[in-house]
Amino acid sequence: MTEDNKTVESSNHDIHSFEVSELTTSRYINPYRLQFRHNSQKRVWDGIISFPSVSCILYHTVRESVILVRQFRPVVYVNQLLESQASNQNDETKVFNKINGIDWSKAHPNEAFTYELCAGICDKNKSLEETIKEEIMEECGFDVDIKNVHKVRSFRVGVGLIGCLHTIFYAEVDESMKIGSGGGNQYEGEFIDLYEIHKDSIREFLDDESKQKPPGLLYGLMWFLYEREHFLLKSKK
C-alpha cells in the first residue's frame, strides 16, 4: 500500500484486556534508590538499571527511502490515559499515582503506536554491530554485511531515570539483501510494521505531530538530512 511516497506493510492489531499489577521482578529493568551528598545537602535519587541499546538509520538506496518501524508502545498508552485523567482533575499528583484506576475507554490503543528507528537492547554477548545487524534482520528483513554498518554516534538516554548508553548506526540496503518480511521476533512477542518515508518527505514527516516519534528518531532523521553527506565523505577518506 503506497500513499504520498510512504509505504506501510501493516498487520492486524487487536489490543485489549489490559490489567495492571505490581512489578516485583523484571528481565529488563532493576529499580534502585541512591542516597548521596551534593555539597552539604543530602539528596535522594531513584533510578533504573537497564541494558545499553542500539538503533539504525536504515536507507533503501533504490527506493530512496528511510525504513522505520511502527509498533504499539504500552507505556505510551498508559501515559496518554493518565494525562487524560489529569486534565480533568484538580490534583494531578494524585491522578498520576492512581494507575490502578485507569479508565481504559479514554483512548484507543491505536493512538499509542510510535514510529521509530530499527532498534534493540544489548542483552546478549554480542558486539554493538552484531546486535544491530540482528535487529535489522528481525525487524526489517534485510541481511546487512556487518562491515557496512557504520557507527554514527553514542549518547546517554533517559538521563533522569536510566542514563544508559545508546548507539546509533547508519546502513544502506537494497532488495538484493532482502531475506524476509521482518516484523520482529514473534517468540519475544514483537508485532512490528514497516514504514518507509521517501527522503523528500522527511521534513513533512518531522513536522507531523499526529505521528508519535521518540527523540532518537527525530535525531536520526535530522542527522540524515543535515549530516549524512558529510559523514559519507569523511568515511571514504
Automatic annotation (TrEMBL):
CDD domains: NUDIX_UGPPase_Nudt14 (cd18887)
Catalysed conversion reaction: UDP-sugar + H2O = UMP + alpha-D-aldose 1-phosphate
GO molecular function: metal ion binding; UDP-sugar diphosphatase activity
Domain Nudix hydrolase residue range list: 49-219
BP-aspect Gene Ontology terms: nucleoside phosphate metabolic process; ribose phosphate metabolic process
Cofactor(s) for this UniProt protein: Mg(2+)
Principal location listed in the UniProt entry: cytoplasm
Any one cellular-component term (Gene Ontology): cytoplasm
Protein's UniProt keywords contain Zinc-finger: no
Keywords: Cytoplasm, Hydrolase, Magnesium
Subcellular location(s) per record: Cytoplasm
Record flagged with keyword Cytoplasm: yes
Domain of life: Eukaryota
Top-level enzyme category: hydrolase
Record EC number: 3.6.1.45
Purpose: Hydrolyzes UDP-glucose to glucose 1-phosphate and UMP and ADP-ribose to ribose 5-phosphate and AMP. The physiological substrate is probably UDP-glucose. Poor activity on other substrates such as ADP-glucose, CDP-glucose, GDP-glucose and GDP-mannose.
Quaternary structure, from the entry: Homodimer.
Entry-linked PANTHER family: UDP/ADP-SUGAR PYROPHOSPHATASE, URIDINE DIPHOSPHATE GLUCOSE PYROPHOSPHATASE NUDT14
Protein name: Uridine diphosphate glucose pyrophosphatase NUDT14
